[in-house]
Structure formats: C-alpha cells, structure tokens
Amino acid sequence: MVEQEGNRQDLGFGTRADTTSRLLNKDGSFNVRHINQGFWNRLNIYPRLITMPWLPFLGWIFAAYMVANTFFALIYVGVGVDNMMGAENTQVSAFWSSFFFSAQTLTTVGYGHLAPRGFLMSSIAAFESMLGLLSFALATGLLYARFSRPTPHIRFSKVAVFAPYLDVNGWMFRIINERSNQLIDVEIEVSYSRMVTKPDGSRSRQYSILKLERNKVAFFPNNWTLVHAITPDSPMHDCTEEQLMDSDAEFLILLRAIDDTFSQMVHLRYSYRCDEVVWGAKFRPMFNGDTRTMVTVDLNKLDEYDLVPLN
Amino acid sequence: MVEQEGNRQDLGFGTRADTTSRLLNKDGSFNVRHINQGFWNRLNIYPRLITMPWLPFLGWIFAAYMVANTFFALIYVGVGVDNMMGAENTQVSAFWSSFFFSAQTLTTVGYGHLAPRGFLMSSIAAFESMLGLLSFALATGLLYARFSRPTPHIRFSKVAVFAPYLDVNGWMFRIINERSNQLIDVEIEVSYSRMVTKPDGSRSRQYSILKLERNKVAFFPNNWTLVHAITPDSPMHDCTEEQLMDSDAEFLILLRAIDDTFSQMVHLRYSYRCDEVVWGAKFRPMFNGDTRTMVTVDLNKLDEYDLVPLN
Amino acid sequence: MVEQEGNRQDLGFGTRADTTSRLLNKDGSFNVRHINQGFWNRLNIYPRLITMPWLPFLGWIFAAYMVANTFFALIYVGVGVDNMMGAENTQVSAFWSSFFFSAQTLTTVGYGHLAPRGFLMSSIAAFESMLGLLSFALATGLLYARFSRPTPHIRFSKVAVFAPYLDVNGWMFRIINERSNQLIDVEIEVSYSRMVTKPDGSRSRQYSILKLERNKVAFFPNNWTLVHAITPDSPMHDCTEEQLMDSDAEFLILLRAIDDTFSQMVHLRYSYRCDEVVWGAKFRPMFNGDTRTMVTVDLNKLDEYDLVPLN
Amino acid sequence: MVEQEGNRQDLGFGTRADTTSRLLNKDGSFNVRHINQGFWNRLNIYPRLITMPWLPFLGWIFAAYMVANTFFALIYVGVGVDNMMGAENTQVSAFWSSFFFSAQTLTTVGYGHLAPRGFLMSSIAAFESMLGLLSFALATGLLYARFSRPTPHIRFSKVAVFAPYLDVNGWMFRIINERSNQLIDVEIEVSYSRMVTKPDGSRSRQYSILKLERNKVAFFPNNWTLVHAITPDSPMHDCTEEQLMDSDAEFLILLRAIDDTFSQMVHLRYSYRCDEVVWGAKFRPMFNGDTRTMVTVDLNKLDEYDLVPLN
Questions:
Q1: What is the pTM of this model?
Q2: Which residue of B has its CA nearest to C137?
Q3: Per-residue pLDDT, D107
Q4: Alpha carbon distance B12, B10 (integer Å)
Q5: Chain-centre distance of CA B101, in angstroms?
Q6: Is residue D108's pLDDT more than 60?
Q7: Contact C112 B108 (CB under 8 A)
Q8: pLDDT grade, residue A135 (50/70/90)?
Q9: B264 interfaces chain C, CB cutoff of 8 Å
Q10: Cβ of C138: how many Cβ atoms within 10 Å?
Q11: Quick one: closest CA in C to D122, which residue?
Q12: pLDDT tens-place string over residues C175-205
C-alpha cells in the first residue's frame, strides 16, 4: 500500500480536491481560495505592481504623485507660504503654490522661482527631495522589473481533439509562439485528472501523467502539436466521451521553457476541461502557401480542425 | 570502508557537529559561529542591506543623507558662505545655509536661490552633485534588489507528528504557501540527524535522508503534507519517543522551488527538533466549507491536529 | 509505429518543414515567417529595444526626446509664453523658449531662468517633470538590460569539414570564445537534417541527433573542435558528398553554456548547410609559437584547413 | 579507438596544452593568451567595468565626468559665454564658468545662476542634459550589476595534502565559506592533469576526473574537507611524490553552488600544482573550544596541518 501511494501523480492538487469546477483557470491561476492570510501576504504589493496591466500601474503611480504633492502642499501651507520665496509671483493660491513647489522638489526639477526660506521650510524641502530620489529609484526598479519579467506569449488551441493517430487514436492539442523572440528547450507535462467512484461509493479525484509522443523540443519556431497516443497502457484507454464528461475530467498542462532573448526560465499553466475536447477531429495544418520557398505559419489557423472518423 | 564513507548523508554538517543545541535555527540560519573572518567578509555590507528589514534600511539611508550633508556643510562653512550667492536671504545660520545647499546639490534639486560662487565653492558643489548621482544610482540598485529578491513565504506547521499512515505509521509535517504568487516544481529533502553512541562509547552525529511518500510537486496551490512512512527500511523504524529525545534528533529540511512570478529559484531551510514532534497525532484537514463549489484553504488550521492511536 | 514516432529527433522543426532553403539563418534566427500575429506581438517592443544595435537604439532615444519636447513645446505655446517667466530674455522665439523649457523640465535640470507662471502652465510642467522621471527610469532599465543581457561571443569556423579521424572519418567543426570572460559547462547538440524520398515518392525532412566525440566541456579556454565520428551506426555512414547535396542536408547546432562573469545561461544557434562542408580537409592547429611557455591561441587561424585524403 | 576517445576527461583544455606552466591561475583565470581578437572583444568593456576593483572603477567614472565637462566647457567657450546668463557673477574665468555650467547640466542640478541664452547655447545644454540622464542611467546599471554580481567568497587551503584515509591514503584539500551568506547545493569537480610520455617519446597532457568521497553537499555551514581516496582504481594509485613532480601534475577544481541570498548560481575555479601538495600531512580540525554548546569554526586554522606517516 505504501508503495502504491508513492506512485500518486496528482501534480500537487491532492486527492481532496473533489471540486466539480475547474482546477486551473484559463489564465493559469488555480481555482483555490486562501482565507486568513496575513495582511501583507494578502496585499502582496510588489508582485501585484509587477503583474498588473500597464494602465492601472501608471494610474497608481500618478495617484501616488498627486497624493504626495497634496500631502506636502498642506504641510507647506501650514508652515506658511511667506516662507517661500517667489510665492507672490506664481499668480496662484497659496495651496497651489505649495503644491507645485512640492512637485518641483519631489521630481528634483527645482526651477527655483519657488524656493524655501527659513529653517523649517528648508528642512521639509530637503526631506522631500530625498523622498523624491527614493521614489524615483523605486519607479525605476518597478518599470525595469515589469519589462524584464519573462512572459511567454504562447497560444493554446481553443480545444483539444480526439483524432486518429497512426494505427490508434490520440488526444491532441497544439500551441504556437505568438512572439518573435525564441523559446528553446520547451518542455511540457500533461496530467489527466478525473473523479472516480470508489467501491464504497465515495468519490475522489485521481490523476495520471499522460505519456506524450514527445514532451520536449530544443527549438520551437513553428506550431507544435502535442499527442498522447491512446495505447492500451494509457489511462484514457477505452474511455468514451460520456465517461469523460461524467468524470469531470480535466487536462492540466505545465509548460517550461527558456526565453532566448533573456536566457530566463519561463513557465505557463493551462488546462482543458472535458467539455473543451472535440471527439473525432483533426487539426488543419497551419502552414501557408508554398512551404518550399519559406515556411510560413498562419496563427489564425491555430484553432481550425476538420471532423474525421476515429480508428 | 571507503565505500561506506561514500554513503554518508550528512547534508554537509559533518559528523563532528556533536552539538546538543539545534543545528538549524527557525529562521533557516545555521547554528554555527565563524571566528577570525576578514573585516569585509564579516561586514558583508551588500547582502545585509538587502536582507535587513525595511525600517532599519530606510533609517540607514536617512542617516547617510544627514551625515553626507553635515560633512559637506562643514566644508562649505570652511570655504566661507560669502562664496554662496543668496546665503544672505535664507534667514538661517551659515551652517544651515550650507547644509541645505548641500542637500539641494546632493539630490540635484538645485533651486538656485543658493548657488556657488568662485572656483573652490563651485568645484566642491560640482563634485558633490556627481556623488549625488552615484548615491542615487546606488539607492536605486538597492531598492530594486530588495524588492526583486525572491523570498518564498512558506509556513511550516509548528510541529511535526507521528501519525498512523496507511497500514503503518508515518512521520509528517505540512506546509502552505502564504502568498498568492505561485511556486512550482517544489522539491523537499529531509534529513534525519541524531547522536549515536559508538561501541567505544564516543558519541557522534549521524545523518540519513528520509524517503518521502513524495518529495516533489509541480503545483503547490493547497497545503502539502509531507509523509515519511516508517517502513522496515526507515532509519526511524522501531524508534520510540524516548530514544528520539535521548538521541538529540533533529529533522533538517531543505526546500527548493521556482517562484512563478519572477521565474527564479527560491530556497528555504527549516528544522524540527525531537521536542517539536507530537506522537500519535493527526493533522486536521485545512479545507473549509463545501469543497465541491470551490476549494477553500484556511491558513489558521495549519497547526491543528487531533490525538490518535498509532498502528 | 507509435513507438517509432517516439524516437523522432526533429528538434522541433517538424517533418513538414520540407523547405529547400536553410532552416536556420547564420544569425541564429529561424527561417520561418509568422503571419496574422497580434499587433503587440508583432511589435514586440521591449525585446527589440534590447536586441537592436546601439546606434539605432540611441537614435530612437534621441528621437523620443525630440518628439516629447516638441509635443510639450506646442502645448506651452498654446497656453501662452506670457505664462512663462523669463521667456522674454531667452532671445529665441516663443516656440523654442517652450521647447527648451520642456527639455529642462523633462530632464529635471530646471535652471529656473524659465519657470511656469499660473495654474495651467504650472500643472503641465508638474506633469511633464513626472513623465521625465518615468522616462528616465525607463532609460535606466533599458540600458541596464542591454548591458547585462548575456550574449556569448563564440565564433564558428566558416566551414565544417570531413576529415580522417582515428581509424575512420569524422564530420568536424570548431569554435572559439572571442571574448575574455569565460564560458563554463559548454554543451553542444548537433542535429543532422536532410530530405528523404519515401517509397511513395513524397519527400519529407528527416532529423537525427549526431553523436559527438564529446558534447560537453567544463572549461572552454582554447578552441574546441567538435567531432562526429562516422561509425557504422552514424546516420551519415556511407553518405557521399553528392548524396549530402541532393538531400539538402543541414547541420543544426544548439550551444548551451554558462557565462562565468554573470553566472547566467547563454544560448547560441548555428547551422552548416551541405554546401558549407568541405570534404577531405583537416583544421590547422590554432596554437601559436611555443606552447611550452604559455598556450597562445590565434583567432585568425580558426577557419584555416589543409586538404587531406580521407580514410 | 573511437570509443576510447569518447572517455577523454580533459575538462576542455585539450591534449595539446603541453605547457609546463600552470593551466589555471590562482585567481581562477586560465593561463591562455588569445591573439588577434577583434577590437571590441579585446576591449570587452562591460565585463571589465563590472569585475574591476572599486577604486579604479570609481576612478574611471570620475575621469569620464571630468572629460565630459571639459569637452562641453570648450564648446560653450566656443559659442561664447556672453550667451550664458550669470557668467559675469561667477568670479571665475570663462572656461571654468562653462565647466561648472556643464557639470550643473550633466548632473541636472541646474542651479540656474548660470543659464543658457540664445538658440545655440540652449540646444547644446538641452542635449547635454539628455546625455546626463543617460550616463546617470548607465552608472545606475553598472553599480547595480557590480553589487548584485554573485561572487562566492570561498577560501581554499593553501596546500592539498596526502594523508592516511581510513585503511588507505587520500588526496585532500579543504574549503570554507568566508562570508555569512549561505551557499547551498555546493558541487565540486576535480580533474587530475599530468604530462605523460608516449611510447614514441612524445609527451602529451592527460586528464582524469578524480572520484571524491563526496562531491556535493546540500548545506555548507562549516569547513569541508574534500577527499579522493587512493584506491586501486584511482589514477594516482602507486604514484610517488617524485612521479607527481616529474609529470607536471596539476589538480583542477571547479566549484558550483547556489548563493542563498540571491538564489543565483556561482562558480569558482582553483588549482593545486604538484608543488602545492604536502605528502604525509593531516589537516588540523578547525573547530574551536567546546563544540557541545555551539559549533565554532576558526578560519585561521584552514591551512594548518600536522605531518603524519602514510599507510
């Protein structure tokens, strides 16, 4: 029994995950909720700032800039704008003079038509300018991190298919690199997960790694069709479409590769639920025109397939 | 004999480590003191600045800023503030005028209501502004390094347990990812270390790698209970609680994983001493509510267990 | 049949790639065209800015600087230069005053002889100075990324050769590290690709990994000659120069290494087409002078060979 | 014969390296000279700036700063300081006024007591301030790269020893981590290189990997003594001190590890020449005081050994 346990292949989800909803969302996140996380862990600031889309990111930066300036403007007003040289010529209210002075200090542009006078005003300005440097440093780090974070742009075919393959059938899906920068040493692991009813009637989720016709390529210039041949030793052998649906089956995919531009590891998760598998279908070749001259791949054909009888 | 030696599994501590105190501290540092380190090696500036908490870090930066400004202020005073245009209008003493001028130079805010006059003053200011750029550059690097340093937020159960496992017993502990950013390819190595008395009466520390029910998972969305089954070939076979305590046993854990957000390797060390192992206890499931709809994990339940009879 | 498929060694090109032009260009890019890429994917900004040569890169930065300043200059002119203190003394037109003011704001140099007056002008300037910081931050990140990107400077011999090797013949090429920074754990994979005519007359591309006399070295201080011995089990056994040319043969090379200066993985692709293979030629040693005192390698000799009879 | 070749273990030096001087210098660089490198490859700017000591590095930066300012100063003088507002009050010559103005522009401190007047002067200043940003960005990148570059501070014992080991003898050396930041998964490869005289009288260098009692540790908190047992299958079996000297033997060491602070790979090369091996010596333990309370390692003892008779 101990030995058997050793062969479990649940990829880390655990047999308890007897949920009927999908385990892995389309965006690669897990369909799991954590409660009672610590405050900072739930906040998780840095990773969020790195992974959020550009618009909200720039929005946050602008907001922070406005808040900081307002905050310091109020302080300067409190100290008194009579301690600010040139405030009389700005043709704007005391608050806005302070606001713009703050902006000029924070960004270290420091025109000087506004300048601090007296100890208090000068100290606050000196402090703010230091904050300016640090926040700037921060922005630099964040922008760099956002850019340099390796994100593979791999598109998966909308559906997986059951297709005749050689003298048997095969479960297939295919992927393509949407970007021009190359991925090398691309490696793929597919796990087949489904609910099984134990003799005692209780249901639990089982997992098995699907053996792929090939699970690693050194280069990935074209599209790549991944094939699991339904041989007698396949966990899907003799499995019908109905059984697949009944068992809440889900195909979990983990992709590992190396981005050639930055020589960094990249990872991608994806999954196909049983209702995203087409039975008796064959992907159309994605090559376009005469491949003799130059191989041309049409990304729009990724999801195209023809219905065919199975073996 | 040479062959035997080849099979040593001390993870790198060496048999000499016959200390009665724990080998590995809770924070993952080693309970080892190095003496006669070189000055710079003991100082170890950069790693310290990177790993120290945020408050002291910012404190150091602020301190450096104050020191630098004071230093240059004194120089400017020495040169004479009559070489500083506008010093007469600042309404503060010569020193503070110089101090604020230094601050405005170091941060390159350079309002200009204070400006250098004459060769000496101008050269020093020119030099300081260059230092300003460099220190700023430094701050940028440090901030970025602090943020981008991958630190896994994995919580270990407070105690390990001896629990019935299948038809035998097992030594178990469990972990959970406190953060939302995913870890993948999580791999764990556990080494069982204890003092043994040789026939000649001398005591020395022995180590053995504990075979785990599974030592690697591709995904880590939920909690993970690691199990070492006490099979006849286990070094802990027939070991009683008393023997465990007498032998100063310690369980050393090395965790390797890949942070999915930054695609970086992360490492974690942890250890359980014999007095942190509960005999005849079983971890409570961490799942919360109805798992059929969505898997919900309650982090507060990580340390919860029930006492149970052993096989 | 399924088993056979499992042994395919096409490195990821796929058997469909029945093109007569080379698969891998000299610069390591693939001879594949993708159509219908998404806009951003085709643009692929960041990797481009990182990989483009220095001159165009600096050109783009300068262009961006000019465009931004012109853009803001027009806005300032619109707002009216009478809202800009000092504009009357610049001795240039309103546009150029605005242009230079914009430049001084964007770079945060902010002399102050030009300064904003009134709410509108001040706000725009405050906004531009923030943009200045961000763009600066961006430039920092880009420059750093460009520099720190590990690019191996390995030169491949212009041609590969068929040379006598021990008691048989061998297919050989050689490489040298042009730079002084060391590469370690250099690993090479060579795949032999050619068109074969199936019994049914259809032609398809076949691939086989070439077994190398050695495919990995820990150090790489000198030149390295890679040798595939034409033993009976070699896919090139009994292959004549004519057959090689007829089959559109191409030798695809993938090099993996670790740059010792930055401890980063580096990768390189290269290929030799059949017409770049010299039959019956032997590389000249690259050592120079008396190697007893110090090993001296002459990079100019990399491509030199002598014609020799084959075994 | 082809098979034999396959077993060569020269780590990448090649058998041609029949030099009598050491292959690997103490600093880990190779004793190899490359001639006819391309200009940029010989210059190899970036890696140099990263790896050079701090003092020269800062020297170069300061020099660049001076040169740039002088260069622009001359241009400004050429344009005429009458186009520079405030130049009349600086109390220094036209050149120095321009020099300091350049400095204030390059560092973007821009006090403004000096400011450009007229189109030409303004454009040049605008251009210089852009250069300022870029050079600053560059400095940031360089400083960060210098700091974050992982450099293991591992000290090797000055000499290797031949010591009795269990029931045979062993060749040993030992290492210690000088820093406090941990290295994990430390892996070591030792290659034994010596000149051998072929039957035909010609001498060539041979290499063999030395099997180590253990070549990898997960943790490295203490010192680590690496042992190659002289068993009958060892290439050093029956080798006497004289033979070792005659054969110009050298022990080449490659260390791989992972720096735990930054989770980065680190590498180190080292070598012992035959004249750095002491016959019949045993390293003294490095532990200090009572190890029962806490393990204390004394770095000064690294090189200490006692002479002992061999088995």
A1: 0.88
A2: B140
A3: 93
A4: 5
A5: 40
A6: yes
A7: no
A8: confident
A9: no
A10: 19
A11: C100
A12: 999 887 788 899 999 999 988 888 887 778 8
DSSP state, residue A234: S
Residues of A in contact with C149 (CB under 8 A): 261-263
The count of residues in chain A is 311
Q: How far is C172 from chain D (nearest CA, A)?
A: 14
Q: Which residue on chain A is closest to D105 by alpha carbon?
A: A109
A46 touches chain C (CB under 8 A): no
Same domain, C219 and C123: no
ipTM for this prediction: 0.84
pLDDT for res B14? 67
Examine the domain organization and report whether B12 and B87 are in the same domain: no
Per-residue b or e along D233-246, where b marks 16 or more CB atoms closer than 10 Å to that residue's CB: ebbbeebeeeebee
Q: Which distant-in-sequence residues (6+ apart) come within 8 Å of D79 by Cβ?
A: D120, D121, D124
What is the domain extent for residue B129? 40-148
CATH number at residue B218: 2.60.40.1400
Distance to chain D for A140, nearest Cα, Å: 10
According to DSSP, residue D24 is labeled B
D140 in contact with A, Cβ within 8 Å: yes
C223 and D34 Cβ atoms separated by less than 8 Å: no
Instruction: Search chain D and give the residue with CA nearest B122.
Output: D100
In the DSSP assignment, the letter for residue C303 is: T
Token duo for residue B33: 């003191």
In the A/C pair of chains, how many CB contacts fall below 8 A?
206
Q: Which of A120, A148, A176 is the last residue of a domain?
A: A148
DSSP state at residue B89: G
Asked if B262 and A144 come within 8 Å (Cβ–Cβ), the reply is no
- The H-or-E segment that residue B281 falls in is strand B281-283
Which positions in chain B touch A111 (Cβ < 8 Å)?
111-112
- Express as a percent the part of chain B with pLDDT over 90: 48
D153 touches chain B (CB under 8 A): yes
**Whether residues B162 and B218 fall in one domain:** yes
Q: Among B118, B148, B178, give the residue marking a domain's end.
A: B148
pLDDT tier, C65 (very low <50, low <70, confident <90, very high otherwise): very high
B28 in the same domain as B165: yes
C-beta atoms of B218 and A6 within 8 A: no
Quote the CA–CA distance of D212 and A281 in Å, as a whole number.
56
Q: Which two tokens stand for residue C155?
A: 């030169």
C1 in A contact zone (CB under 8 Å): yes
Banded pLDDT at C222 (limits 50, 70, 90): confident
- Average pLDDT score over residue span C234-263: 90
Contacts of A108 in chain D (CB under 8 A): 108
Say if residue B7 is in the same domain as residue B108: no
pLDDT beyond 70 at A33 = yes
Q: Do D134 and C148 touch (CB under 8 A)?
A: no
Does B95 share its domain with B195? no
User: Both tokens of residue D52?
Assistant: 């050079």
pLDDT score of C10: 67
Give the pLDDT score at A37: 83
Residues of chain D positioned with their CB less than 8 A from the CB of A110: 110
CA distance D107 to chain A (A): 11
Q: What is the mean pLDDT of chain B?
A: 87
pLDDT digits (tens, 9 = 90+) for D216-232: 988 888 889 999 999 99
Q: Which of A264, C153, B135, C262 is nearest to D50 (CA)?
A: C262
Number of structural domains in chain B: 2
Give the A window 205-244 contacts with B, CB below 8 Å.
none
Tokens, residue C302: 């990399």
CATH (domain of A134) = 1.10.287.70
Domain shared by A197 and A276, yes or no: yes
What confidence category does residue B3 fall into, taking pLDDT thresholds of 50, 70 and 90?
low
**How much is the average pLDDT of B176-192?**
89
Residue A23 and residue A159 in one domain? yes
Which residues make Cβ contacts (< 8 Å) with residue D106, sequence separation at least 6? D65, D68, D69, D72, D128, D129, D131, D132, D135
Distance CA D158, CA D302 (A): 8
